[in-house]
Design brief:
Blueprint: H1 2-19, H2 22-55, H3 70-86, H4 93-103, H5 112-125, H6 133-150, H7 155-174, H8 177-187, H9 194-215, H10 234-262, H11 268-285, H12 294-301, H13 305-309, H14 321-344, H15 352-371, H16 381-397, H17 400-410, H18 417-434, H19 442-446, H20 455-462, E1 469-470, H21 482-488, E2 497-501, E3 507-512, H22 513-516, E4 542-543, H23 549-559, E5 563-568, E6 571-577, H24 578-593
Parallel strand pairs: 4-5
Antiparallel strand pairs: 1-6, 2-3, 5-6
Helix pairs in contact: 2-5, 2-6, 2-7, 2-9, 3-5, 3-11, 4-6, 5-6, 6-7, 7-8, 7-9, 8-9, 8-17, 10-14, 10-15, 10-16, 10-18, 11-14, 12-15, 14-15, 15-16, 16-17, 16-18, 17-18, 20-24
Length: 594
């Protein structure tokens, strides 16, 4: 059977190479990838909705408190799947994609095609306070990566197809094809050229058509603008931009703070128990934290904050607008806590939609504060709810254009384009100058594995240290005599540098040919002078597994050396030469800019 399959694939390859050009084939694949990513998104949503409907979740559980235990059940099911089926540590969906683009040539394990389809609905359906967008993007990316490998697509085109998959997934979930394209460019640091624009456009269109085919005209947000932007409200949108910037910084810092808080809990079982109980308590106090939160956003958009808040322990005081404001502000504070706790406890999900929930609550709070300040001001609460979402997306994701166009497409027009630009740009500028990296990119940036729009840095990130390490250097030992070194190493080497190592292969230093040149012909010294006499320190060291290629390049620049030793745990591995490093850089740059 495998032989027949291989023969069929070979026939397909031959037919494709003969009848379809590479450019046309990429266009075809982008459409297919968009459709499959859209289908994955629809599947994720439907599985999650089925679980929620089966459990009769939501506000109903406030009457009998059963929702308290649901997150623990969901996290337990995820834990069992990961331990006995997946058998690998879960990684953040978007961060793992970014790593595959920078260090794994766009290769993603085929297991990721179905893993997120199982664990994300279990997490969200049982009350985990995370979103489905990240898992949808991860599933689509895995599909596109493996499809590209099946058809022998090169790594650069495979990366483009992964971006196409993300565009297809987002377009399908939000029915916003333009924002989907911009997200792929902003988050995946894709160079937007006509070569990449058309595949992204095709994938985005096919993704949204998939959503229309399976979901009809069903939209996430039922909203139409009833109050257009007024110039007199400009200052309030500036204040909202500042507020969403502060919230974005809080969101990011809270994420890493809680992740670090869970690190001492080495056992997944303890993390599950602690996290599950914490989420359950938060859900009891603030029911809208349950699941993704789209119902909460929609209720705020239509002005029904009572329905948005649901049944809480504070129902006796809900008639007081300041209690409502306090509860909505509590959602702003605790959505980030609940989301991160869900992920830290072993759940699977994304941060994009929780960001929107937090932004909608904050925007509504700001509008209510303005309207109830007693100063005679009046603003549209639904408009502020929408634009609050844009401010949080711009700040948390460092993606202002995605935020602007996503909300503009959701509202079905550009009537709020000016306030969207004001709030999103202010939020982005303040957050970017306070927090260098997003939740997606911080760990990758610290390890030097992050692709950015900086072409030089991107090329260095794509380079692999293993490809430039040279090992054809003759090793010498400190207790060797000068004669032994000349006979066993110098005479047999084409190099003018010799690494000195001990019996355990620990790197001690180097000897240059110039160091021994004046003693080479003095035979009296052959038996009396040891190698350690000529050994001296290298100008610098390259630490394997620790130094990024950016650091390696900087070390060559600072030291002025032409060769630097590579060491791992103190042991000698080889040398990197400046000439080979620059040659590899030029080669990668040509590939990157094709």
């Amino acid at each position: 059977m495998p032989i027949q399959k291989n023969k069929l694939l070979k026939r397909i390859y031959k037919w494709r190479y003969k009848h379809i050009s590479q450019k046309t084939f990429v266009y075809i694949l982008s459409v297919v990838v968009g459709l499959l990513a859209g289908l994955a998104s629809v599947t994720l949503k439907n599985i999650t909705y089925f679980i929620e409907a089966s459990l009769e979740t939501g506000i109903i559980f406030s009457s009998n408190h059963l929702y308290f235990i649901l997150p623990i059940i969901g996290l337990t099911l995820v834990y069992l799947y990961v331990k006995y089926v997946h058998k690998e540590k879960l990684k953040h969906a978007v961060s793992s994609i970014l790593f595959s683009l920078s260090k794994n040539k766009g290769r993603i394990d085929v297991k990721q095609v179905y893993t997120q389809l199982i664990i994300a609905p279990l997490t969200v359906g049982f009350g985990g306070s995370v979103g489905l967008l990240g898992p949808a993007v991860a599933t689509g990316a895995a599909i596109s990566s493996n499809l590209g490998r099946l058809f022998h697509i090169n790594s650069k085109t495979r990366s483009l197809l992964i971006a196409c998959a993300s565009a297809g997934a987002i377009s399908s979930i939000f029915q916003s094809p333009i924002a989907a394209i911009i997200f792929a460019v902003e988050v995946f640091s894709l160079d937007l050229t006509m070569i990449s624009m058309l595949p992204l456009l095709l994938a985005s269109i096919s993704g949204v058509l998939t959503s229309y085919f399976f979901m009809g005209n069903e939209v996430l947000f039922n909203f139409s603008i009833s109050e257009p932007f007024e110039v007199k409200d400009t200052l309030f949108y500036v204040l909202l931009g500042i507020g969403t910037a502060v919230a974005s910084i809080y969101f990011t810092k809270m994420y890493f703070g809680i992740i670090n808080l869970f690190k001492p809990l080495k056992s997944p079982k303890y993390r599950l128990l602690v996290g599950g109980l914490a989420i359950g308590i938060m859900l009891y106090m603030i029911p809208p934290l349950y699941g993704e939160g789209f119902t909460f956003i929609n209720n705020l958009l239509i002005g029904d904050h009572i329905q948005a808040l649901g049944k809480t322990p504070f129902d006796a005081y809900i008639g007081n607008i300041w209690v409502v404001i306090a509860l909505l502000f509590g959602i702003t504070i605790f959505k980030a806590v609940a989301m991160t706790t869900t992920l830290a406890a072993g759940g699977a999900g994304g941060i994009f939609i929780p960001t929107m929930v937090m932004g909608s609550a904050l925007g509504n709070v700001v509008a209510k504060l303005i309207n109830n300040s007693g100063l005679g001001f009046s603003v549209s609460e639904s408009n502020f709810t929408l634009i609050g979402m844009a401010g949080l997306i711009a700040g948390v994701q460092h993606a202002p254009l995605t935020a602007i166009f996503l909300i503009a497409e959701i509202t079905g027009g550009y009537a709020l384009f000016v306030p969207l630009m004001i709030t999103a740009s202010i939020s982005y500028i303040i957050t970017k100058n306070t927090v260098d990296y997003t939740i997606y990119t911080r760990e990758l940036a610290e390890s030097g594995d992050l692709l950015t729009h900086n072409k030089d840095q991107a090329v260095l990130t794509l380079m692999d240290l293993d490809t430039v390490i040279e090992t054809n250097f003759k090793i010498v030992h400190p207790d060797m005599t000068l004669g032994e070194m000349l006979h066993d190493s110098v005479a047999k080497s084409t190099r003018n540098i010799f690494p000195v190592v001990d019996v355990d292969h620990k790197f001690l230093g180097i000897i240059l040919l110039d160091d021994i040149r004046e003693f080479m012909f003095d035979t009296k010294l052959y038996d009396t002078t040891k190698v350690e006499t000529f050994t001296h320190k290298a100008p610098d060291h390259i630490y394997y597994g620790l130094d990024s290629m950016q650091i390696v390049m900087q070390k060559f620049q600072d030291s002025g050396a032409w060769n630097l030793p590579v060491v791992k745990n103190g042991k000698y591995m080889g040398f990197v030469s400046k000439s080979k490093l620059l040659t590899a850089y030029r080669r990668e740059l040509i590939k990157f800019t094709k």
